[in-house]
Amino acid sequence: MTTNVGRPDIAFRVKEIVSAQLNVPKDEIENDASFTADLGADSLEVTQIMMLIEDEFWITFPERPVTDLSTVGNTVDFVLAARNAAQTPRCD
């Protein structure tokens, strides 16, 4: 997928997914909101959210992330980095 999508678009779409899964109004979801502490998600809900994000953006989260994905903003940053890495031509 080579569609150029910026951080605001990714954040909007991630917040839509989170809002739908957790029944939280989109405008109440802040970038620094923790999925568990602030938004009340349990581990299964977080897993479902991550799977939906993977499907939406054609990315894969590592089983053991090297970065903190506990907040909406960190997850948006990861998605952006993963999409950018996938679009960067390799020089093999």
UniProtKB/TrEMBL annotation:
Cellular localisation: Cytoplasm
InterPro entries hit by this protein: ACP (IPR003231), ACP-like_sf (IPR036736), PP-bd_ACP (IPR009081)
Location of the Carrier domain: 8-83
UniProt keyword list: Cytoplasm, Fatty acid biosynthesis, Fatty acid metabolism, Lipid biosynthesis, Lipid metabolism, Phosphopantetheine, Phosphoprotein
Coiled-coil annotated spans: none
Principal subcellular localisation of the protein: cytoplasm
Modified sites of kind O-(pantetheine 4'-phosphoryl)serine: S43
Pfam families with a match to the protein in the record: PP-binding (PF00550)
Keyword Transcription tagged: no
Statement: the UniProt record of this protein carries the keyword Lipid metabolism: yes
Domain of life of the native organism: Bacteria
Family under the similarity heading: Belongs to the acyl carrier protein (ACP) family.
PANTHER family referenced in this protein's UniProt entry, alphabetically: ACYL CARRIER PROTEIN, CARRIER DOMAIN-CONTAINING PROTEIN
The protein's name: Acyl carrier protein
Source species of the chain: Shinella kummerowiae
